[in-house]
Amino acid sequence: MTAHQRSRSTRWTALPALLTAGVLLTACGSSGGDPGAGTGRARPGGTLTFAVGSDAGCVDPQQVGSNDTIYSLRQVVDSLTDQDPETGRIVPWLAESWEVSPDATTFTFHLRPGVTFSDGSPLTAQVVKDNFDAVPKLGALAILAQGYLSGVESTSAVDTLTVRVRFKKPNAQFLQATSTHSLGIESSASVKRTPQRRCSQGVVGSGPFVLERYVQNQSITLAKRTGYAWGSPRWRKKGEAYLDRLVFKVVPEAGVRAGSLRSGQVDAIGSVGRADEATLKGGQVTLQRRANPGVVFGLGLNNSRPVLKDADVRQAIRYAVDRKQIADTVFPTGTRPATSVLAHTTPGYRNQGPDLAHDPAKAASLLDAAGWKPGPDGIRSRNGTRLNLTVKWFANAATNQPALELVQQQLKSVGVDVVLKELQISQIAQVQQAGDFDGLWGNVTRADPDILRSSYSTGLANAYRLPPSPLDSVLDRQAATTDAAERTRLVGEAQRLLVRNAYSVPVVELQTQLGVSRKVHDLDFDASSRIQLHDTWIG
After folding, report:
1. H or E segment at 48?
2. What pLDDT score was predicted for residue 283?
3. Residues 276/255, Cβ–Cβ less than 8 Å
4. Angle ∠(123,126,132) on CA atoms, nearest 5
5. Distance of alpha carbon 227 from alpha carbon 46, whole angstroms
6. pLDDT reading at 410 higher than 70
7. Contact predicate 161/111, CB 8 Å
């Protein structure tokens, strides 16, 4: 039987149905990401040079959450499953088929025979077990992978090619989690390394490319894996990739990246901003866009700070932000203002727009009622304490600073003083773990609504220091049910609680926009709006 036949035979229809509800569309360019279609026959060879804005400081896919680095590392590891970006359905990859127990506590995967890692070692059930057993020991950088595996009771190798994962309670999100880069499978030798060594030296995967060289804050170079023969069925090409080499150069300045693409020094660039769209459109460059599912860009508030424990202050901040102005001024064409803590492309999204309306008068009224009075310079104070916040942000997207400068102006207009502090993306785990912030600017991409539990449950990492509340129960229950309608309802309730209580302040949906030379063909988005380069060719 196929994977879908096996999974349906266990009545596992709830999650695929829910995933299908959030169809993801490419907003510009062809759905296959092929700006040069029809110009010739695909041919092997060549080097693709891709300019990104930042380096996460780590080359272990299980420990990386920044898109700029995921672009390269996704090519090094394969996952047990893949996710169709158009339908959201889960399809086979390293696992040929699977069964899920009716209560979604037990997942049994039947591995594809003949798969090897680039060090020559075989893929076995024991290797998968070793990967999953090691994730909780990886530390703060592996927050995504740890969230996906939270609640695991045991992982066992049933036989050489059968692995079984049991959870302590129902866990509806896990099947989709096995399609992510965060649970990409690494060789036994890699798993045995320390987390620090995996970050600095990289890992051995079974993917279509192999890490050849890493120079921190400069470049990541990958080489084609000879003999690769177990790609996702979504890919058009069978066997090895077309390209011989991939070079990801770190070019922090958006304008420099755009200029390098126009001049032909690079073949593709990430994070194309509105300011560079006009100069890149037409000619030898195509813009490719895709909305990212998951938690939208916004201010993650530290709810343990004395000022931010007050719901009136948090809600005032929420009302003071003019999301449309920020989306229309700073972000790429087509970017949507946030209408929930989840992007509209996420399965289970529910519109919370009325609670996210721009209403500075309401913001001022809430602050007045909470005892914060404007001073001579317009900044409010209470009992001698000024209403100021330090918002930390990371230099991994050109839109971050101008977006926050607008937020800063909007909050100042209602009497909130905001200080912006720039950090490197490699510092994000440290900052989240220490709780050394009032607000953090960022987003989290995932094509499953359980990203809310990973991000906001007080039973997990709880980076934003939320207090225990009914939200915890709602998040746990949505992860436990296999009933699609009930899960959708619970996910909607979680969004309502997050927005109404202003535990975070959603601002804009992230839209990935790439600039791609017309000589580059079949550069595809995956379900999470990252890229897949196995099918990509130059000609």
Report:
1. strand 47-52
2. 79
3. yes
4. 100
5. 17
6. yes
7. yes
pLDDT 10s digits, 455-470: 999 999 899 999 999 9
pLDDT digits (tens, 9 = 90+) for 423-441: 988 898 899 999 999 999 9
Rounded CA separation 397/68 (Å): 9
Q: What is the CA radius of gyration of the chain?
A: 23
Taking a C-beta distance cutoff of 8 angstroms, is the pair 302, 435 a contact?
A: yes
Distance (Å, whole) CA 447 – CA 69: 18
Judged by DSSP in three states, 465 sits in coil
pLDDT of 281 reads 84
Paired residues of 373 in beta bridges? 381
In terms of phi and psi (left: phi > 0; alpha: psi -120 to 50; beta: otherwise), the region of 415 is left
Taking the C-alpha atoms of residue 167 and residue 274, their distance in angstroms, rounded to an integer, is 45
Residue 434 to residue 378: CA distance in whole angstroms: 32
Residue 309: predicted pLDDT: 97
Distance CA 512, CA 529 (A): 7
Residue 394 CB-half CA count within 13 A:
27
Tokens representing 170 are: 């129902």
CA 312 to CA 366: how far, in whole Å? 6
From the list 381, 377, 347, 283, the residue with the least C-alpha distance to 488 is 347
Q: What's the pLDDT score for residue 264?
A: 96
Runs of H (alpha helix) within 249-290:
254-263, 274-280
Band of residue 3 on the pLDDT scale cut at 50, 70, 90: very low
On the CB side of 418, how many CA atoms lie within 13 Å of its CA? Answer: 27
Residue the block writes with tokens 């960022």: 442
Q: What pLDDT was estimated at residue 18?
A: 36
User: Taking the CA of residue 420 as centre, how many other CA atoms within 13 Å lie in the half-sphere pointing to its CB?
Assistant: 18
The pTM for the full model equals 0.84
Q: Which has the closest alpha carbon to 148: 479, 529, 482? A: 479
CB atoms within 10 A of CB 238: 10
The pLDDT value recorded for residue 8 is: 34
**CB-based burial of residue 412 (10 Å sphere; 0-12 exposed, 13-18 middle, 19+ buried)?**
middle
**pLDDT of amino acid 39:** 52
Q: d(Cα 128, Cα 202) in Å, to the nearest integer?
A: 18
Q: What is the DSSP letter of 293?
A: P
- Please list the alpha-helical segments (H only) found in 281-390: 311-320, 323-330, 360-369
